[in-house]
């Protein structure tokens, strides 16, 4: 049998072994164990698993005595001392290669094959015997790097340190004893190093109850059916929301949850596209002139940029999905968008707040569609084309945008953390009023907000609390507040008394204000909305 217990020296010094003449012998096992340490294993537990397999491997034979398989196309001769000599003849090898190219590997097993390959090339052909064993199938697959990575220009031709690219092998966790294992041994034996830089392993797909899928059980979820019914992006989102290092569960209810998540993400992107229809780059506002809320959102983009890049580098798609889902649903849709809809829809065209918001939305959109593109490629491509009109380009040809480090402002972030605590108490009080049917829209309210904690109250300096809580008014009172005021146990120092707003309802912004009716030209709206209407009509007239 052919063995790999002590492989021939590699064609060049082994960078993986790091062993000198006084170290342990340069065996294939030693090379493989050293090579394992140079590889990034995802998840990290994969390193211990394959290390144990190599360290305790008892069988190093690469031939198998079976009736099927890829032949070991060599001739051997008994030397009489218990060893064999291998025929090394380039003309014989060329004849074998020509036959294999024309007829396949079965040419080795055809009658008269020995005479066909040796006749006229070897003086004593009868002394040579054909090896009838076949090659271990894992050794065969383990050598794929030699005729892919090393010869195909579209794959990896130059490895580090000469090149910056990395080779990743990706397969199920069972391949630690299969493809990953055989590839490591073959490459370490012939190249002196592993054929890969990164090995990523995943679990297997089970049904919703954790059972193996089976036609007889009727619990099979077909990818083709999911794509046909919901689209490929739903399937990709399900994968990226799962912990692929473990076994993954899938079924109708799980996919329903995934579809709901996707719908929210898509709606956020759609709202961005609708709002950005009015964006004009020449009207963008410089960072220093932006309101505090816009600068806070840009700060969050800086934080997310680092988090998303690190997660992608670690192949942690679940973290990418969780971070972006939380940001889009909680911080954008339920917070920033909710607050800024009034300025976007009702402020004058020249409003700094409105233009600053559009500036930020443009920055948010550019990052969201590139960050999400690996997960939702079709959705992000559609959004890119809708935004740019560039059907020749692609979001998948873009890199992640650079996010300016000077957008980061940890002190501002802490201020908005405190502001959001106060906002949460106000929204909680209004929700109680709505549930009791004492109040409908939050714009019907002008809650009295009592803040006894100076640190919380100071956070509101320079901010419009009514704008932040989406109410018609919200007077801030620095005191404990009445005993029966609404409070949240986890936000001490804040109390809210729900009060109905007084005045007339603005026909444009729906805010209730005593100022409605004070503008003679537009008596049905507030002065802010009257100015917006005058500016709008003036712009229309100028355009004509």
Task: List the main descriptive attributes of the protein structure presented here.
three-stranded antiparallel sheet, three-stranded parallel sheet, 544 residues, Isoleucyl-tRNA Synthetase, Domain 1, mainly alpha, 17 helices, hypothetical protein PF0899 fold
Describe this structure in words.
- With 544 residues, this protein is mainly α.
- It contains 17 helices and 16 strands.
- It has helices at 28-36, 45-55, 90-103, 113-118, 137-142, 179-190, 223-230, 232-240, 252-276, 292-313, 317-346, 352-372, 377-388, 410-435, 454-458, 465-469, 527-543, and strands at 40-42, 63-64, 70-71, 75-78, 84-86, 129-130, 134-135, 168-172, 198-202, 205-206, 248-249, 448-451, 476-477, 494-497, 504-505, 512-513.
- Strands 1-9-8 form a three-stranded parallel sheet. It has a three-stranded antiparallel sheet with strand order 2-7-3. Strands 5-4-6 form a three-stranded antiparallel sheet, with no helix packed on it.
- A hairpin with a 6-residue loop joins β15 (504-505) and β16.
- The protein is elongated, with a radius of gyration of 35 Å.
- The protein starts with 27 loop residues before the first helix and ends with a helix.
Short description:
This protein has helices at about 30-35, 45-55, 90-105, 115-120, 135-140, 180-190, 225-230, 230-240, 250-275, 290-315, 315-345, 350-370, 375-390, 410-435, 455-460, 465-470, 525-544; strands spanning about 40, 65, 70, 75-80, 85, 130, 135, 170, 200, 205, 250, 450, 475, 495, 505, 510-515. The chain is mainly alpha-helical. Among the domains are: about 75-130, no CATH class; about 260-405, Isoleucyl-tRNA Synthetase, Domain 1 (Orthogonal Bundle); about 410-495, Class I aminoacyl-tRNA synthetases (RS) (hypothetical protein PF0899 fold, 2-Layer Sandwich), CATH 3.30.2320; about 510-544, no CATH class.
